[in-house]
From TrEMBL:
Keywords of this entry: Membrane, Transmembrane, Transmembrane helix
Keyword Transmembrane helix: yes
Coiled coil: none
InterPro entries xrefs: UreH-like_TM_dom
Transmembrane spans: 6-31, 43-64, 76-95, 130-148, 160-181, 202-222
Protein's UniProt name: Sulfite exporter TauE/SafE family protein
Top-level taxon of the source organism: Bacteria
Length: 224
C-alpha cells in the first residue's frame, strides 16, 4: 500500500460530505417507481460508481505513463506531481472551507456531463436492482472536484494499475457515507461538518500537498 492510496482513501473519507450533497438525491432516483426497493440496489450502484473511478484512474495513469516513456521526458511526471500537489492544496482549502476555488474547476466538467447524463437517465426507473450497476458507472462521471483532485494522483502513479488503485481507494473512502445515505448518515455528516474535524483533516492534506510539491521541486532543481 502506497502513501498515495492512503491519501486518496482519506480524501474520500473526509470529503464524503460533499459526495452526499451531490449524490444524496440519487438515492431517491434509484428507488423511483419501486414499491419494494431492494436492499441490493445501493450496493450495485456503488459497485458501478467505484468501477468507473477505477477505469478512469487506470486510463489516466496508463496514458500518462505511456506518453512519458515514449517521449522520454521524465520531467513530465515531475511537473504533473507538482500539479497534483497544487490540487491537493486546493482540496485542503475546500475541506477546511478556507477557499472554494476548487468548485470553479468542478464546473468545467459540466460540459462533458451534459453529454453523458442522458445515458444514465435512460435507465430510470430501474427494472431490476442489477441495473443500478451501469447507472452507478455513468453517475461516477458526475463533475466532482474531489474526483478531479485524486485523478491528478492517478496521473503520476506510474502505470495503469496504480492509477486504478488510487481512484479505487478514493471510492472506498466515500463508500461508508454513500451507503448510509438516508439511514444513519446524520451522525457522519455532523462529524464531517465539525469545525475541528474539518480543520485537522484539511491541515493534514495541506501538509501532505506541500510535502509532495517540495519533493517534486527538489527533483526539478537537481535536474536543472
Amino acid at each position: 500500500m502506497t502513501p498515495d492510496w492512503i491519501g486518496a482513501f482519506f480524501i474520500g473519507l473526509v470529503g464524503a460530505g460533499h459526495c452526499m450533497g451531490m449524490c444524496g438525491g440519487i438515492a431517491s432516483m434509484l428507488t423511483m417507481g419501486q414499491a419494494n426497493p431492494s436492499k441490493l440496489t445501493p450496493l450495485f450502484y456503488n459497485l458501478g460508481r467505484l468501477s468507473s473511478y477505477a477505469l478512469i484512474g487506470g486510463m489516466v495513469g496508463g496514458a500518462v505513463s505511456s506518453i512519458s516513456e515514449v517521449s522520454q521526458l521524465n520531467n513530465v511526471l515531475v511537473w504533473l506531481r507538482i500539479t497534483a500537489a497544487v490540487f491537493m492544496i486546493l482540496l485542503a482549502c475546500y475541506i477546511g472551507r478556507w477557499w472554494h476555488g476548487l468548485l470553479y474547476i468542478e464546473k468545467l466538467g459540466q460540459v462533458i456531463w451534459r453529454g453523458i447524463s442522458p445515458a444514465g437517465r435512460s435507465l430510470l426507473p430501474l427494472r431490476r436492482p442489477v441495473y443500478a450497476i451501469p447507472f452507478g458507472f455513468i453517475w461516477g462521471w458526475l463533475p466532482c472536484g474531489l474526483v478531479y483532485s485524486t485523478l491528478t494522483w492517478s496521473a503520476v502513479s506510474g502505470n495503469a494499475l496504480n492509477g486504478a488503485s488510487v481512484m479505487l481507494a478514493f471510492g472506498l473512502g466515500t463508500l461508508p457515507a454513500m451507503l448510509l445515505v438516508g439511514h444513519s448518515a446524520g451522525s457522519l455528516y455532523k462529524l464531517q461538518n465539525n469545525t475541528m474535524f474539518r480543520h485537522v483533516a484539511a491541515t493534514a492534506l495541506l501538509l501532505y500537498g506541500l510535502y509532495t510539491g517540495y519533493g517534486a521541486i527538489s527533483i526539478l532543481s537537481i535536474t536543472y
